[in-house]
Amino acid sequence: MPRFSVCLIACVLFCIARIAVSQTIIHGVVKDGLTGETIPGAVIGLKDPTGRVLARQISRGNGEFLFKNIANAVSVNAHALGYRDTSVILSFDSLIVISLMPNPLEKSGLTVTAERYATSIKDVPVSTAVMEADDIQSRNPNQLDDALRYIPGVSVENNEVNIRGSSGYTYGVGSRVLLMLDGTPMLSADQGSMSFNALPMYDIDRIEVVKGPGSALYGTSALGGVINVITKTPDKDLHGSLNVFSGMYSEPSYPQWQVPSLGRQFGVIDGEASGTIGNVGLLGSLDYGRNESYRIGDDNYRWDGFLKGNIPVSNSTQLTISTLLAHENRGNWVFWQSLNRPLVPSDSANAVDARVHSYTADVIANLNSIIGDNMIMNVKMNFYNTLFTTDPQVAGDTAKGHSTAALWNGEATLSFPAASNVYITGGVNAAFENVTSDEFGDHHAPLGALFAQAEYKPYNNVTVNAGLRADLEPFYNVYLISPKLGATYEPYNDLVFRASYGRGFRTPTITEMFISTTLDSFNIQSNPNLRPEYSQSVEGGVNYRTKYYSLDAALYYSTFTDLIEPEVVFSIDSGVYIQFQNVTKALLYGHEETIDITPFGNNLLDINLGYTYVFPENSVTNQILPYRPRHLVQLGARTQWKGIGLSVDFRYVSKYEVTDTLLAQRVPNGDARVDAYVVNAGASYDLRNVGIPAMLSLEALNLLNYYYVEAPGNLAPLRSVALRLQTGF
Amino acid sequence: MKYLSLFFVCVIFAVSCDKGLEPPPPVTPNTNITLTGTVHFTGNWPPQDSARITAVFLVEAAPPFTVSQVIIGLLANTVQWDTLHYKTPDTTYLFFNPPPGTYHYLCVGQQDGDTATTDWRAVGFAHDLSGKPITFNLQSGDSIVQNLYVNFDSLPAQPFIQ
What we know:
The complex is a heterodimer.
Chain A: H1 2-22, E1 26-32, E2 43-47, E3 53-58, E4 64-67, E5 75-79, E6 86-89, E7 96-100, E8 110-111, E9 119-120, E10 128-132, H2 133-139, H3 144-148, E11 154-157, E12 160-163, E13 177-181, E14 184-185, E15 204-211, H4 215-218, E16 225-231, E17 239-249, E18 265-277, E19 280-291, E20 300-314, E21 317-330, E22 336-338, E23 341-345, H5 348-353, E24 356-371, E25 375-390, E26 402-419, E27 422-437, E28 441-459, E29 462-473, E30 478-492, E31 495-506, H6 510-514, E32 517-519, E33 522-525, E34 533-545, E35 549-571, E36 575-597, E37 606-618, E38 623-624, E39 631-641, E40 644-653, H7 661-666, E41 676-686, E42 694-701, E43 709-711, E44 714-715, E45 720-728
Parallel strand pairs in A: 1-7, 13-16, 33-36
Antiparallel strand pairs in A: 1-4, 2-3, 2-5, 5-6, 8-9, 10-15, 11-12, 13-14, 15-16, 17-18, 17-45, 18-19, 19-20, 20-21, 21-24, 22-23, 24-25, 25-26, 26-27, 27-28, 28-29, 29-30, 30-31, 31-34, 32-33, 34-35, 35-36, 36-37, 37-38, 37-39, 39-40, 40-41, 41-42, 42-45, 43-44
Chain B: H1 2-15, E1 34-42, E2 53-59, H2 67-76, E3 79-84, E4 90-96, E5 101-103, E6 105-111, E7 120-125, E8 136-138, E9 143-145, E10 148-151
Parallel strand pairs in B: 1-9, 1-10
Antiparallel strand pairs in B: 1-4, 2-3, 2-6, 5-8, 6-7
């Protein structure tokens, strides 16, 4: 009987405590278990004894969270990207401190692009690759395209990015892959092209690549995929660095290819600084580069500057403002003279004398705010302006082509949990394009869009994701609906199956519709009747990740409708000319496998392998699409040991089975092509080992001096060897 | 490091045998001379005893000339010929690598009698819009197409001196 009484009293006391607890304020803070710094934006979940989530909240700017009057809560769980999920039993008499330990398995495992909010790649139903800062640094790419070539499934033809065969060679206009800088579009409003050399390579934190249509979230141009370049966050402590980089291209081994007058040298000097003044975090860089090139009429001078400021407006609101400015003065190289003289341009006088000046400016304002307990508001605005002008070939003549293109873009997004297992993201997007050009005319194109998506977790190991975007584009007199649907299933820890469907579209660029010019003997005429092109894609995949290796495999099937291609037109009035037309339906399917091995579980050795197979077919003619490599292999290895770093990367791109017959007729040997085998290698030594605060690296690109083309009539860069010195405080 | 070395070796082995694109082989200049074309026949063919041999003749000499000059020219290589079949509506002829030089007369001739050294007539010849015979200056690498038209109902002026 006494034992029964004790139990009864204990039960009563426990129940009283529970009732008291349920009416108590639950107040806590989330911190990094290693550094002790607070973690804002962590998802905090209160759970009942069965593990059911009763309420969710997001930690504020100071890492704190606060729940009131939640009944039956017994534990609190914190989830933050890059950290291990951590649960603690509630205590109600003091501040709850949740210390999160970094999760090494989530290295390369986060994305903000695939779902418009930060999430783990394993929860994303579409193939997504992330190149982290240390991967970028170990390869020291000079431009973004140099980095993209290391990502499985991605190939680059001149300035055009091709994800799993979605793009071919389109004369530099109308990218079928959307490029973004910190989540804002960065395709020129006139040509829809990318400015790789304007991006601040030393300030990039990571590059995210979503493979597959992304128009349900991002609208036009996300036909074949999305690339999001994310810049670093300013440091708390002041630090700066100076990077000096200089090298030289090799001479070709064939005597008839050699051009003795070429300098072939290149160099870049870059300075950057980061720190916090008061409570404003600042990050900035300035760099100047000169490249004499390995061919005539292809040299450039360039500079670019980048400044980013993080301004905390309140405890739960932060404003980030970034400014990017870049200028390039380059030769007007278009195609080679022939395969007998591939380093000499087809129109030498024009390439050498008609210098092209391009200016790029991008101003981004990004406001992040936590509203109430669990709603995140994000407002982004950016102004992206490009300008190019071409010097006259002969002094005193009037200048040739020029174009000024401005993109004003604004969007507002709200993200919030609609229920304990449903997370909603929705927003509105408006943009305005303004083009003034002597080649394309003057045009203004507004657009408006609404988008929404929901993430639903019916079970702990199942995530279902659905989204829809409606775009209204009065300039093209169209409205477009882009849905997406996906799911992931994790039957065992670290084994994830995924499946997705998505639709993409691209409205024709101003250039494709209104260009009227002569380019290297090609007469190009306008076509104002162009319509948008569309894609639909389904994908299934599996991912398995351990401490020592990760495996990923995907099958995909895509269709493209109304593809815009340059066509040869014959007319009695105008003779023979080129015009962009909606001509083709296409079918692309294939598979992709990636393996990443870290045999020691750290960065002592890291080996990665990617293989992509694409079957690209014109479904009208049943012929292979031009400029789509069928096989793509990327193999890399890098090691870090006692301040010594070694890396080697190998890339195989099978030769294009089909090229543009028009080009082959107009450009001598314009259809010359081979399989590409490219080896890049690097070695670095941390001079701090000998008391000097600097890093010295030696890099060789195209080490074996292999001769190949990526774009027709353009020999890819010859072997280059460069020395880089990085020093800082 | 073992893996890395193996990787290096495999890669270098895989690609070191090939240098990729290379200059196209030098183009051997074409030194051949060809004169070719189609002979179109209209009208009524003469009976075979009036058309014992039909051939295309390429003659250095300018008309008029004698039949004997043509026959001797065949032996001296200053006249080329390519025989044709009887009653073939349209057929091609070819002179491959005739001696370089100037040829003033290209015609279709027929042996219209028993004597091969005298009984010949021209039934069609290459002429310009004014009706004058076309002169061919054949040099190394030349490739010329010249069609010929024969109307048996309207034979041309004869080049032969009787």
